[in-house]
Write a structure and sequence with these properties.
Elements lengths: L11 H9 L10 E2 L12 E2 L14 E6 L5 E5 L25 H14 L3 E9 L5 E10 L7 E7 L2 H12 L5 H12 L5 E7 H5 L13 E7 L17 H11 L8 E3 L2 H8 L2 H7 L6 E10 L5 E11 L6 H38 L8 E8 L9 E9 L5 E11 H20 L4 H17 L1 H5 L8 E8 L4 E7 L5 E3 L5 E3 L21 E4 L5 E5 L11 H12 L8 H12 L8 E8 L7 E6 L5 H15 L4 H21 L4 E7 L3 E8 L18 H9 L2 E6 L4 E8 L1
Antiparallel strand pairs: 1-2, 3-4, 3-7, 5-6, 6-7, 8-9, 8-12, 10-11, 11-12, 13-22, 14-15, 15-16, 16-17, 17-20, 18-19, 18-21, 21-22, 23-24, 24-25, 25-27, 26-27
């Protein structure tokens, strides 16, 4: 069978080569000698004109054919822009690549050989014979059947094409470092080394209103190419020496106006920089170098300089006027991307600080707490509204709260902070979890109806929250949920599974969709492990949400009772969180400890006049057994007597007395069936009522009320 392709089925090489006739200039350009021209080995090639008006002669298309061993068989690189690329038949194609790109490009070439699927529009650098580099868009195509090998088409990044591609790439990230890195990589097309140095305030996300020439501080944000640099040279993340920062600031703000600066050779660089220390910090090597310094400027009155872009190259390749025009145009076009990234960085830092502040600090004697908050990837819309919190309640219980506010950014963070603080205040005031969720539901509705919320274009409707209260005496957890995913409970014997939670539409639902908040009570004996989390931890496109929760239960069940809880939480997140997060990941682990049996005592007394005396007779032997000081015993007996007297006087039904010994004090609780709230009032000298609470107030470090399904509990704490 004839291996020559028929005219009706031209190969990709022939197709591209036939198109070159429309792109290769037909005269009108002065010839320029290449490295082989001096030896007379190749005819002279036209030089790319410096005049922008003659840019129509900058042709950009070329093609190379490779065999199965990735060696060049044919090529058509006669366009002037490819001057210096002199491939010889039989030479390896990778000889024209920078050393660091050889493994990646080789892998791509062989992948196209094996699969027959083209790899299109890879931005690539090619090495010329003189050591300089050319930026191209490279496409790898399989050769037409029955031929073997590959066809590599290259499109040199002509001025307008490169400017467009660079600006598009630079605007794809909201991270300051990544934006600066993209700018530096784009600038490398004009030189051998490119660096971006930013005002320290820009790097940290602070506002930049203006700079004083004497106090500007620059930090290196990006540097390309990636290589081993000499000692003393400033690399990304390092601050420039103060002398270098001042000199660069003066250079680009001549006559109080930002201007581009070109220093043509090493001697001139030494005159400008002066100090050998500054030379070591800024000059990338010992070769003779020239540099173009382009300020990153925000338009305004006065203009604000965000930093400096520096392009270094050999002194024997001076910057042409058209190149400086292109450099200034690119930097000017992309300076606002740096500022947008700065603003995002500032917002991200503020929200993250708020997020971290809401995280639980530590547990206590009756419960161990560990939490992990992992924000979404930097190129997301910003930190989200996920939050977890745990805090001891004044009555000895511990509150565990997790929520997920709709949206990202400052709007979500502000709502998150408001809901978190409101939940803490209401729980500390003694409200039950379902009552707290009712208040949060009203808050979300009011926030969405407020003019400020509508003007901000942000709505928190549909946010979720789950509240769990752990009682270390009864070893029970009371829980209510507003549309949140169910917590996972691991029993001491290792069995794990999600708790049964009735579906709920979440906070701020329409009136017709609102449902009552259910209350579930379940046992959590010492050694139990409770996991509260947000959906970012269990959402996986490949799994249903129930499968994701089941996977979480499997991982949490492997936590050993002796394991460090914080390390266990990190392990759970690393095992479940997706590599590329689309949402924040939040996890709260709580290991139940509870009180020892000998540290608590409970009595149930009839509501009769002799109840205070009977309570004192029960409490006194226990206080002696606990070996409390005599003055503390007297205070506790008086406190119990007053609280029981108050319960008998103002409530009906039995009275419950409970004493709890903790590490920092003694907690006394008296429960009754009344619904009246005791209030401390300033009484007159002749008033008979209210003296009991005055005594309670003076004897205790703190006291309060919490409500139950059958009445209330008045609690008071006495220091030991």
């Amino acid at each position: 069978m004839d291996s020559t392709p028929s005219p009706s089925s031209p190969s990709p090489f022939d197709l591209v080569s036939s198109a070159l006739g429309r792109y290769i200039p037909r005269g009108g350009a002065a010839p320029a000698a290449g490295p082989d021209d001096e030896r007379g080995e190749r005819p002279a090639r036209p030089r790319v004109p410096d005049d922008p008006a003659a840019g129509r002669q900058d042709r950009i298309l070329g093609v190379v054919n490779l065999d199965g061993d990735l060696r060049i068989t044919r090529c058509n690189l006669d366009a002037p822009v490819f001057a210096g690329l002199d491939p010889a038949p039989g030479s390896p194609f990778v000889d024209f690549l920078p050393a660091g790109d050889v493994p990646t490009v080789t892998r791509r070439l062989r992948q196209v050989l094996e699969t027959g699927e083209a790899h299109v529009a890879r931005i690539q650098r090619l090495r010329r014979a003189d050591g300089s580099e050319l930026v191209v868009s490279m496409s790898i195509l399989p050769a037409a059947v029955p031929q073997e090998g590959l066809t590599v088409s290259v499109i040199a990044m002509a001025r307008r094409l490169h400017l467009y591609a660079a600006e598009t790439a630079i605007g794809t990230s909201l991270d300051v470092g990544e934006t600066a890195q993209s700018l530096a990589e784009s600038l490398l097309a004009w030189g051998d080394v490119a660096a971006v140095d930013l005002d320290f305030a820009v790097w940290t996300g602070e506002g930049v209103l203006g700079q004083s020439q004497g106090r500007i501080r620059l930090r290196r944000a990006a540097l390309v190419p990636d290589r081993a640099w000499p000692e003393g040279y400033v690399t990304p993340g390092d601050d420039l020496p103060s002398d270098a920062s001042r000199l660069l600031a003066q250079a680009v703000r001549r006559d109080d106006a930002p201007q581009a600066l070109v220093i043509p050779d090493r001697e001139a660089v030494e005159r400008v920089l002066g100090s050998p220390r500054v030379m070591r910090a800024l000059v990338p090597g010992d070769r003779s170098v020239g540099v173009a310094c382009i300020p990153l400027v925000l338009d305004g009155v006065p203009p604000v300089v965000l930093g400096v872009a520096e392009i270094w190259r050999r002194a024997d390749c001076p910057f042409r006027d058209s190149e400086l025009f292109d450099l200034q145009e690119l930097v000017a076009r992309t300076a606002h991307h740096i500022d947008l990234a700065r603003q995002h960085q500032r917002e991200h830092t503020q929200v993250l600080a708020l997020q971290r502040r809401l995280l639980p600090r530590a547990g206590g004697d009756t419960i161990e707490i560990a939490s992990v908050y992992q924000p979404a990837t930097p190129d997301s819309a910003g930190v989200g509204g996920d939050w977890v919190n745990s805090f001891p309640l004044p009555d000895g219980r511990t509150a565990l709260v997790v929520g997920d506010v709709v949206g990202h950014g400052l709007g979500a963070a502000a709502t998150m902070g408001q809901l978190s603080m409101e939940a803490r205040a209401l729980l500390s005031a003694g409200l039950a979890p379902d009552e707290v969720l009712e208040h949060l539901d009203e808050t979300v509705t009011l926030l969405d109806d407020a003019e400020s919320g509508l003007a901000a274009g942000y709505s928190a409707l549909g946010s979720t929250c789950c509240i769990a209260l752990y009682d270390p005496v009864s070893h029970r957890v009371t829980m209510s949920s507003a549309g949140h995913l169910p917590p996972v409970l691991v029993s001491p014997d290792g069995r794990a599974g999600p708790l049964a939670v009735r579906p709920h539409p979440g906070l701020g639902a329409e009136f017709a969709l609102r449902e009552p908040f259910d209350v579930q009570v379940f046992g959590a004996p010492p050694g139990s492990l409770l996991a509260l989390y947000t959906d970012g931890l269990v959402e996986d496109p490949a799994l249903s949400i129930d499968e994701g929760i089941g996977k979480l239960a499997d991982v949490v069940s492997t936590v050993h009772p002796w394991d460090s809880l914080q390390q266990a939480a990190r392990h759970v997140v690393s095992a479940l969180a997706p590599v590329r997060q689309r949402d924040d990941v939040t996890l709260l682990l709580a290991r139940m400890i509870g009180y020892r049996k000998g540290d608590t005592a409970t009595w149930r007394l009839p509501a009769r006049d002799d109840a205070p005396a009977r309570a004192r007779s029960r409490v006194f032997p226990l206080l002696r057994q606990w070996r409390l000081r005599e003055d503390t015993r007297d205070d506790v007996l008086l406190l119990v007597s007053e609280l029981v007297t108050n319960a008998v006087r103002f409530a009906a039904g039995p009275v419950t007395v409970r004493l709890i010994r903790s590490g920092h004090g003694l907690l006394c609780e008296v429960g009754d069936t009344g619904n009246g709230r005791p209030r401390l009032r300033r009484g007159g000298p002749l008033d008979d009522g209210g003296r009991g609470l005055q005594i309670v107030h003076r004897l205790t470090t703190r006291w309060g009320v919490r409500w139950t399904d059958t009445g209330k509990v008045v609690w008071a704490e006495v220091g030991r």
